[in-house]
Protein: Metalloregulator ArsR/SmtB family transcription factor
Organism: Rhodococcus jostii
Amino acid sequence: MSNQELSDGGACCSPLAREPLTEDWAGDLARMFKALGDPVRLRLLSLIASHAGGEACVCDISESFDLSQPTISHHLKVLRAAGLLDCERRGTWVYYWVIPSALQQLSAVLLTESGPVVPSETCTSTEVPA
Amino acid sequence: MSNQELSDGGACCSPLAREPLTEDWAGDLARMFKALGDPVRLRLLSLIASHAGGEACVCDISESFDLSQPTISHHLKVLRAAGLLDCERRGTWVYYWVIPSALQQLSAVLLTESGPVVPSETCTSTEVPA
DNA sequence: GCCCTGATTCGACATCTGTCAATATCGACG
DNA sequence: CGTCGATATTGACAGATGTCGAATCAGGGC
């Protein structure tokens, strides 16, 4: 995977709204978004991100779900394959943590002309320059 | 399944990293992320967002894909059901446009402690799993 | 060495998803 | 009114996905 598109040369807006995504990049982003497209995985990510120290072991977070441990492990694997998590074994336990740059990249892609704030509620006007 | 309850109301950071997502919210967000978890839909969204005027008719964007017209229509329906797009019929054509607040919400959720701030605890390695 | 605990992998299953061809709907134009 | 072009809906189908139980792997303690 190539996550180098973060620093787009001279791009003032999000690439999503600036120009059509290339197929390659769309596929790359879609894999990450698809990993987030499951409530269990979203909660897993949130649990890990909000855990003390920014990391958590499986035994700790699996208690928050009604799912079997293999299922939790499967979801963690999906998140890791998508590049959103990383993990490390320490003795008996395996600790997971979030990869901040991955989330940041996704967040940046979604930042369109709307920007971080929406001052005007009447969005009917199309203010996008041609 | 007793998660730690809300600490306090004033959320200064992203809720994803502040505290575990509630099941309701995770389900809501997951529906939107799942809609983005397909390269075709991502490109559709990008094509519409980057189109002149911020909106595009189906006949225009469908040319960029090798997919059948019903498939394009299906993906547009998914994006609309997720609250990411809205559409309007004008004569023969149907125009679609992006709902900025939806993308903004998703972008905000992903803005964790990473953001503009450089994390100091887990900066030992930035390599992603292969 | 042997077992015990934590975590992953495997195999199987039902369900969901993406795709197409065929058909239907909706509006414009003779 | 009939037809035509643009979208949407339906039905069907292969492939992906989420889930579990069982088996397996990895360390620690006896």
Confidence is low (pLDDT under 50) at residues 1-11, 115-130 of chain A. The first strand of chain A starts at residue 55 and ends at 57. The CA atoms of residues 22 and 62 of chain A lie 38 Å apart.
